[in-house]
TrEMBL record:
Residues 58-227 form the Metallo-beta-lactamase domain. It comes from Brachypodium distachyon. It is found in: Nucleus. It comes from the Eukaryota. This is Protein artemis. Its main location: nucleus. It holds the Pfam family DRMBL.
Length: 505
DNA sequence: GCGATCAGCT
DNA sequence: CACAGCTGATCGC
């Protein structure tokens, strides 16, 4: 395949070191966007107010209707379709910003987020009215005086931002006040072996001030008992070793638009090498302030053999194409288990993409239990001999979720991720860690919505007994249930409103 | 014709 | 089977 052919086919945004034709559709779209980049408006300051004391028991001070109001007219998290009085963004990944309008901007109301997210938002949503942004620093609180759209009575909330350690600027939100005590984790990691996570735990416990969480909305992405992976710093060092073992290779690392910066920084420092990123990613790095002297990241391909490329660009075809020009290895740092489990470097290359190869493996495993525990002694391979997948995850693994549950001990817990590998309701695994699991045996396997409003939903029975839930679930069961749920979603299945507010007895 | 949303895919 | 994200098709104004 000649170079021109290579750049003409779909994954044409991986550059070569000779620098030819590196600017791609992605790069051009970045340039178009950056032209409309404007300076940030000075943000309105968030003031702290004394904690609003509320009776225990999950907001029992208010009538049933006010719980629905929290869904319909008070507060939304990672949901921006309007109709609420205050909006909260946990982090700037695309699947958490649906409803934010990139062109016409944001008009629905005050939008709370971290200062880092506020800094990045105008680059992703150029039309946003920054005067509506309400940055909350990690650990800080803000008080909200809202109104029940049903009763017209005032609602006081105190929200505290907790570092989520998922990607730069990611936050959890702890809500206390007239609607009870609710913790929305967003996507998070919880590596208690690291100082950052211990500090986040401290901040969380401090914010709780002895109060207990009525409803925990949990990142259940990897809520499956055998999904455990090492801390990120351990995996980062493994990636260093892999690159060092290929001194004459180009290296392609798949990353997203935000996240895994610490990995790239570690690689750069450990290997004493710059890292190529695409132009928008470079802007992001500079906005994050992690490479002010421009010593680490570059958009010049001639300066380095390590390139961070959009994750979707790292495929069998792109690697094969690159290897026709120069020896290249691919590295996929990802928590997705079927990428790094036991491929033994013998992937089926008949498929056009890594996905197809792994789908075959998943089907072969359907008869058995999923076993995803990571073995660091076995070099993980992605889909060819020259590619590697490592469990560098920005989401908490099962043991971390368990530790989190033990620290929080909520009255009840709900998963916030519907499109994930594990869509089993976290209550199936952590019900015993809930103080008052009022929905035992009555809950759907999966929450219908992805993220968003803060009103728990439930569906009448039909789920398993507690004993049945303890049985390890085969991947075929997971797959079938998933398909069913997806079809229901496609048909527009709805979950009815809760018959009574959580915690009201 | 345009933007928003959805479907499909990786 | 998809962490998050791209692309093209379709729909409604």
């Amino acid at each position: 395949m000649c170079l021109r052919e290579y750049y003409n086919f779909s994954h044409d945004n991986i550059p070569l070191r000779n620098g030819r034709s590196i600017y791609t559709r992605l790069a051009f779209s970045f340039l178009a966007r950056v032209s409309s980049f404007s300076l940030l408006h000075p943000f309105r300051k968030v003031t702290n107010h004394p904690k609003t004391q509320q009776p225990r028991g999950g907001g029992g001070a208010l009538a049933t209707g006010d719980w629905r109001a929290m869904d319909e007219g008070v507060v939304s998290v990672d949901k921006f379709s309007g109709g609420s009085q205050a909006y909260f963004l946990t982090h700037l990944h695309q699947d958490h910003t649906r409803g934010l309008d990139a062109v016409r901007g944001w008009r629905h109301g005050p939008l709370y987020c971290s200062p880092i997210t506020a800094r990045l938002l105008p680059t992703r949503f150029p039309g946003i009215d920054v005067s509506l942004l309400r940055p909350i620093a990690p650990g800080a609180s803000a008080s909200l005086s809202l109104t029940s759209p049903i009763s017209g009575r005032p609602i006081s909330l105190l929200v505290t931002a907790i570092p989520a350690l998922h990607c730069p600027g990611s936050l959890m939100y702890l809500f206390r006040g007239d609607l009870g005590c609710r913790l929305y984790t967003g996507d998070f990691r919880w590596e208690l072996g690291c100082e950052e996570a211990r500090s986040a735990k401290k901040a969380l416990l401090h914010a709780l001030a002895g109060d207990s969480v009525d409803v925990l909305y949990l990142d259940n992405t990897y809520c499956y008992p055998s999904l455990n992976f090492p801390p990120r710093r351990v995996v980062a060092e493994q990636i260093v070793n892999i690159i060092q073992a290929h001194p004459d290779h180009e290296v392609i690392i798949g990353v997203d638009t935000l996240g895994k910066e610490d990995l790239l920084l570690h690689l750069s420092r450990a290997l004493q090498m710059k890292i190529w990123v695409w132009p928008q990613r470079l802007l992001t790095m500079h906005l994050l302030g992690i490479d002010d002297n421009q010593e680490i990241f570059t958009t010049q391909t001639s300066l380095t053999r390590i390139r961070a490329v959009p994750r979707y660009s790292l495929t069998i075809e792109s690697l094969e194409a690159l290897n026709t020009v120069c020896p290249t290895i691919g590295i996929m740092p990802s928590g997705i288990p079927w990428l790094w489990k036991n491929s033994e470097g013998k992937a089926k290359s008949s498929g056009k993409s890594p996905t197809k190869s792994f789908r075959c493996k998943a089907q072969e495993r359907d008869v058995g239990t999923i076993e995803m525990d990571y073995d660091p002694l076995s070099p993980p391979k992605l889909f060819e001999n020259d590619s590697y997948a490592l469990p560098y995850s920005e989401h908490a693994c099962f043991s971390e979720l368990e530790a989190f549950m033990q620290a929080v001990r909520p009255s009840t817990v709900m998963g916030i991720v519907s499109r994930s590998f594990c869509y089993v309701n976290p209550r199936h695994h952590f019900g015993h860690l809930c103080r008052d699991d009022v929905y035992s045996d009555k809950t759907p396997v999966k929450k219908s919505g992805h993220t968003g409003s803060l009103t728990p939903k439930r569906r009448p029975s039909g789920s398993k007994t507690p004993k049945e839930r303890m049985v390890r679930i085969s991947s075929s069961t997971l797959f079938r249930s998933r398909v069913i749920m997806k079809r229901k979603e496609c048909r527009g299945a709805r979950i009815e409103e809760p018959e009574e507010p959580i915690g009201v007895t």
